[in-house]
Amino acid sequence: MEDVIREALCESSGKIFKRNDTISSTLCVPGLIFLKHMTHVYDKLLEELHTVSEDVKEKVLIIPSNAGWAYILEKAYSSDIGTYLDEAMQAIGTVNKSFQSILPQEYSSRNINGRELSKFINMLGEIPADHCKTNEILRHSFDYIIRRKLSFVSQTGIYLKETFHAPKCVERLMVAIAGPEEGKIFDPCCRFGSLLVESKNYINENSHYFNGVNVKFYGQESIFSFYRLCCMHLAMHGIDIDHVKWNSERSINLDMHRELKADIILGVQPYNSSIIPWIDYVLSHLSRKGCAVLLISKNSLLIKNGKEYRVDKKCLEHNCVDCIVTLPGTLFPMAGISACILIVAKNRGVKKGKYRYRRNEILFIDAAPLIKGKNARNKELRMNDINEIASTYHQWREKQGDYRDKKGFCKIVKISAQNCMSIEL
Q: Rg of the chain over CA atoms, in angstroms?
């Protein structure tokens, strides 16, 4: 049922815009889903509390009466629906200072087909009214439509490298490897916030630690349209956006979190950024016991000669590389890149605690054998695959772990005295 709704919404949303290669085409549809979702959240809160106190106002998004979903749905087939929506988004930004300049106000644009916009609003209004299920459908649809929009942009060749994002299965793998429970989680190149959202989902599903106090989320983004999407995305998942920053420079050039020491860092290597400065930047923000899981270009880290990989020795100088997971190119069909996951840690030489001493070795994992068959181009990592990779890393890292090399899949490689290494799985 949910898949059918998502596909229908995505198909309908594509008819709203006369041109699909503009910023408004990326922001406006997610903005409508955001409005419906946050209205549900606010209405539910009013039902429970009857009134919203001043301290509660600081923690929720206030939806004014002339901006709520019921009001917009009532005006859906008005010839001025675009104006009503622009005014609604402006009203929300006025009463919620953190959302000023975040929400789209381009609904009265000439690029928008008013009739199709009305149809889409009505379609959203027909989603079943059960509160929890409705919000889940809306959150998943928000993520799905953004990914489809960005895939379209990539296919047309517009901002291909700058708009690159990891497939959802790879993001799930990165978060499963990091295994967040509590502390500070940081994404220095957060795009539309999907890695932070996936971290929150992981915590909710696997841990009783999350209570809004023990975990804090931090992020930085240089593309303003992505930053706006990120703020909406995080808010829909109940994540505070106060520590998510925007500036026109990349994190490595203009750091908005200079004093931050994060327990977990998740990120995609920025386009046209060298790997060594990127690792140095990540290490500067990693806490003493922290772990960073980074999606990077395979060519920037590994040199392949036949079946053998050789690691750039400069990457080994800090002795912080814990594990390298190579990924098949079939996971990135639109981008046409070859990528791997790099795991770095500062506590590789600590003999106390649950992690073992591992400064003289690195774990290699090859995910390619998990994606098999003639139609591998369209396949993704399944949850069983993700759990197998993450568990292999955790078992290798922990003192009480039951790790064993597995030919063609995983292998421990010793670091030589010359600070260089090669590996054949």
A: 23
